[in-house]
Inverse folding.
């Protein structure tokens, strides 16, 4: 689709005048149905409702439906480009039964009685019998249903909970947001279509069943877009044409960021800047929490005594300063003011209502002095009280900063996001996750899920926010952050995340990882521009590029960084890592050794080692290590060249600070490798920015060479060629050769003998083909894989199990999984549990995992608990409690079921729970009170000590059989909550702690009956 060049155009793409004329000439109103042509499509009217179906672009059409009185409702939070293609569509009445829309890529057929819509993309049928129905009542809604395909896989939506990615493949969702949770109304299908529900509120629900999809949209207006494309890249291109291309962040945002809550004062702040520079640990950004401000928007002079001078000093040291912002007034005087103006957001005690334009202007004026003193960006937190609260917060900052400093890039980082936030210079982080291996393991998949839903710039609190990571965990989290679009360490108050805070071995490993990040910035920055042009994320799941490989369909613990790099960071204690490499030639980034995929292997990696692999046929530009991105503007580059197939890479450069790239002021250099004649050409593809100092290319690192005979540049033989035994590559030094200063095409010819990787065994090739056939439902292939399992090695079992997971409906597969669970290795058990959780949540599978509830492996016990609670729903408590150990409770499976109201909890309080709080974090944390033993009950008081940010769940019951859920969240600063109940309906009151603290100690609770 076309590249967006204007960011803030609100409206709907219209057809050209020529197309409209063609429509009016070629279409006629059928006498049998109240339908008429409109610009771009059809308008259909029934007794109570009206529908519009319009072709928007070659990849996109829109369905709008509304009940009488809502014809003019508009939804302002997303937009379409005003520069759509002048595309010709055909709008036809086929016969007396149907009519439709035809473009070059898709065809829509609509039955004349509007009982169904069919979509074909090319010759492939992707949506069948789509129906729309409006449901009246207290909570009116639109319901959309259409047939699904047995082998269809659905991706997107976002993550499912704090520290819970929800996996890649999705089967259901309810849109909404919390801190670190973004569930969006957009998903894509492996069949080549995507669905985006354009709404200004959350609450859309979606479920994929065996034979159908069902989407429910609250309200009287439905505004839905159906996107088409041959692969996920096409679908994201179409989606970001619709909601906005992600703006390029400033160059400094690709450096390491040190975030911190808890400073003693200015000397402490300045000392940390000095330590980074003295230890030569690269850092670009310091982000400040509560310490940096007082009275909502005044400088904390204890920490920044002379703000403008302090930030000028930071700038001179190559450090940008970012400060936290919250959409509320904590200072009494400010709070009283917004209350007097009626500006408090509904259902909040102190959030100002950013939905009101006057409030946005007032709030920005309060922040403007901070910006003028040198704040480089904003950290936005706790704006989850309304679906578009973050949107208006970021939009205010974007427009305000553009007004103050026109053309300067805006950068914000937010705890959640909604569609369209990417077009405002926004990034997102995954919330206040725990310092645990489980939460670390969920981060990669959350990044991938965010990327699939249009947000390419994601990050996490490196080391975890709550708790204290071990040195090993901190290092592994840092190593994951090397490849995260935003690399940012953070923690709760006074909990250290300094690179030097975990011992010398950890410090060495962390420094090495951060240095690698800086070496990769030219590569990452080039993909940032590609994201702006096409909407594709910097991190992408393996199935994006290997869509016919069943191993990649649900693989969420390794990922592609761009198209060339495969990262498989260590996410488990002890350094062991199972790595899967898809089909093709792969180079080990550290050793340069090669092997052919598909292959699965297990290695133990040292503390300073990161499993990274480069696809054969790749070009990777790398930078020398610098202390910050602004250190120099003529950094010499090296080019890592990995032969294996013809390839190219577009190296992108601009000023790194402004939006002038939108005017074409940037440079692109095309690096192109011909694998047949072993030549590398380098040419200026685009030179739109004349004033930029260019990075000279000083060295070519050639990998995969057995030996080298000669190298010539533009016909002139080069003499300085070195063998680097550590990297296992040939270094070709380009002396005094600044390639960017010439307008000619420069050609490097390399005469060398390639090092051939070990040949793949014929059995491996046959197994790979069998797995591919199995994944598309070939029953003979399924049976062959089941037979292979009997003699398969440990790693082979994992691969075969992944392939079988796509066929859970077959009895043979079920029996195989049931038989494997008791005796398999933990890694195989986890693979099976993941498959059951994703593809087959019904009773027969839950029953076979019940024994695993008592597993000593926390992850296995937790996954089993989730499966049991999801499958048994109302009976979940009975099954969970029948075999559940304290270990399994670490995943809070039971509380998750209650919290989502999937459970009547009729068994939960029959003496099977503790009746007081326990000091152990893994115990069930219940208080159960029989109010019938008391007189004149009017309510309950709950007390706690230092329970910052804790949540708890209250259930009430008249008879201990049917329980009503009352979900509460305390005010976050320790103290008292008072809850009043009807004493008849609340004879029994139960309280359950959903979150536990660590920094502040365990919550000390007690109940008092009034």
């Amino acid at each position: 689709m076309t590249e967006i060049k204007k960011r803030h155009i609100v409206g709907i793409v219209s057809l050209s005048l020529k197309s409209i004329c063609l429509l009016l000439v070629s279409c006629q109103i059928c006498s049998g149905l109240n339908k008429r042509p409109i610009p771009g499509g059809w308008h259909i009217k029934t007794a109570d409702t009206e529908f519009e179906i319009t072709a928007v672009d070659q990849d996109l059409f829109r369905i709008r439906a509304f009940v009488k009185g809502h014809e003019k409702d508009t939804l302002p939070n997303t937009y379409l480009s005003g520069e759509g293609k002048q595309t010709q569509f055909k709008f036809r009445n086929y016969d007396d039964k149907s009519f439709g829309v035809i473009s070059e890529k898709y065809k829509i057929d609509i039955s004349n009685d509007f009982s169904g819509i069919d979509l074909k993309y090319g010759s492939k049928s992707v949506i069948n019998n789509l129906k729309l129905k409006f449901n009246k009542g207290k909570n009116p809604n639109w319901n959309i249903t259409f047939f699904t395909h047995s082998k269809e896989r659905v991706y997107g939506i976002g993550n499912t909970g704090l520290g819970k990615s929800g996996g890649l493949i999705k089967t259901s969702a309810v849109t909404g947001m919390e801190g670190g949770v973004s569930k969006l109304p957009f998903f894509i299908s492996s069949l080549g279509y995507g669905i985006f529900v354009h709404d200004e509120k959350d609450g859309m629900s979606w479920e994929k069943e065996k034979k159908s999809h069902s989407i429910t949209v609250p309200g009287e207006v439905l505004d839905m877009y159906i996107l088409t494309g041959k692969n996920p890249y096409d679908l994201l291109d179409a989606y970001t044409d619709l909601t906005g291309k992600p703006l390029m962040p400033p160059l400094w945002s690709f450096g390491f960021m040190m975030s911190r809550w808890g400073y003693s004062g200015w000397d402490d702040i300045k000392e940390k800047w000095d330590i980074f520079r003295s230890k030569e640990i690269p850092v670009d950004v310091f982000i400040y929490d509560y310490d940096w401000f007082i009275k909502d928007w005044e400088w904390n002079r204890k920490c920044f005594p002379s703000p403008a001078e302090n930030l000028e000093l930071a700038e001179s040291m190559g450090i940008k300063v970012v400060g936290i912002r919250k959409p509320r007034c904590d200072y009494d005087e400010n709070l009283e003011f917004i209350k007097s103006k009626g500006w408090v957001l509904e259902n909040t005690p102190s959030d100002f209502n950013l939905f009101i334009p006057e409030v946005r202007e007032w709030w920005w004026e309060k922040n403007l002095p901070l910006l003028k003193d040198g704040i480089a960006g904003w950290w936005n937190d706790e704006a989850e009280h309304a679906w578009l609260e973050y949107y208006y917060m970021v939009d205010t900052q974007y427009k305000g900063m553009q007004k103050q400093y026109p053309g300067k890039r805006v950068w914000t980082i937010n705890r959640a996001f909604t569609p369209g936030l990417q077009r405002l210079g926004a990034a997102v982080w995954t919330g206040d996750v725990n310092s645990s291996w489980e939460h670390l393991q969920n981060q990669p998949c959350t990044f991938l899920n965010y990327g699939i839903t249009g947000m390419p710039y994601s990050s996490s609190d490196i080391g975890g926010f709550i708790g204290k990571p071990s040195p090993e965990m901190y290092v592994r989290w840092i190593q994951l952050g090397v490849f995260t679009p935003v690399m940012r360490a953070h923690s709760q108050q006074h909990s250290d995340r300094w690179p030097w805070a975990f011992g010398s071995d950890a410090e060495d490993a962390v420094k090495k990882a951060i240095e690698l990040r800086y070496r990769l910035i030219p590569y990452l920055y080039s993909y940032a521009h590609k994201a702006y042009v096409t909407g594709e994320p910097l991190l992408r799941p393996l199935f994006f590029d290997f869509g016919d490989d069943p191993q990649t369909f649900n693989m969420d613990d390794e990922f592609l960084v761009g198209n060339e790099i495969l990262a498989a960071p260590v996410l488990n204690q002890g350094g062991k890592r199972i790595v899967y490499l898809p089909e093709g030639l792969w180079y080990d980034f550290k050793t340069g050794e090669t092997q052919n995929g598909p292959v699965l292997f297990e290695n133990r990696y040292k503390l300073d080692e990161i499993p990274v692999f480069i696809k054969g046929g790749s070009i990777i530009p790398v930078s020398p290590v610098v202390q910050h991105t602004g250190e120099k503007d003529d950094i010499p580059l090296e080019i890592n060249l990995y032969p294996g197939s013809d390839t190219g890479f577009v190296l992108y450069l601009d000023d790194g600070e402004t939006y002038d790239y939108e005017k074409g002021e940037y440079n692109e250099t095309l690096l192109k490798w011909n694998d047949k004649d072993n030549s590398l050409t380098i040419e200026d593809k685009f030179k739109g920015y004349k004033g930029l100092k260019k990075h000279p290319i000083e060295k070519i690192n050639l990998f995969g060479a057995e030996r080298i005979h000669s190298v010539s540049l533009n016909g002139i033989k080069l003499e300085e060629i070195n063998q680097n035994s550590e990297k296992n590559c040939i270094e070709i030094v380009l002396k005094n050769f600044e390639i960017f200063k010439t307008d000619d095409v420069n050609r490097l010819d390399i005469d060398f003998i390639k090092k051939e990787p070990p040949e793949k065994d014929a059995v491996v090739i046959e197994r790979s083909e069998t797995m591919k056939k199995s994944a598309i439902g070939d029953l003979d292939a399924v049976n062959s894989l089941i037979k292979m399992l009997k003699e398969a090695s440990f790693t082979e079992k994992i691969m075969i199990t992944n392939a079988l997971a796509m066929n859970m409906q077959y009895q043979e597969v079920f029996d195989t999984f049931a038989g494997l669970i008791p005796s398999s290795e933990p890694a195989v058990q986890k693979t099976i549990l993941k498959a059951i959780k994703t593809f087959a949540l019904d009773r027969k599978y839950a029953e076979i995992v019940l024994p695993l509830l008592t597993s000593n492996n926390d992850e296995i016990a937790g996954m089993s608990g989730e499966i049991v609670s999801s499958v048994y729903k109302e009976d979940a408590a009975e099954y969970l409690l029948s075999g559940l150990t304290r270990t399994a409770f670490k995943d809070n499976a039971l509380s998750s079921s209650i919290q989502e109201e999937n459970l009547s909890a009729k068994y939960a309080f029959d003496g099977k729970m503790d009746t007081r709080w326990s000091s152990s974090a893994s115990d069930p944390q219940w208080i159960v009170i029989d109010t019938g033993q008391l007189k004149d009950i009017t309510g309950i008081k709950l007390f706690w000590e230092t329970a910052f940010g804790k949540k708890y769940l209250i259930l009430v019951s008249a008879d201990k059989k049917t329980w009503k859920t009352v979900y509460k969240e305390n005010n976050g600063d320790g103290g008292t909550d008072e809850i009043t109940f009807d004493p008849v309906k609340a004879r029994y009151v139960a309280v359950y702690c959903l979150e536990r603290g660590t920094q502040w100690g365990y919550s000390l609770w007690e109940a008092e009956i009034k």
Observations:
- The CA atoms of residues 256 and 979 lie 45 Å apart.
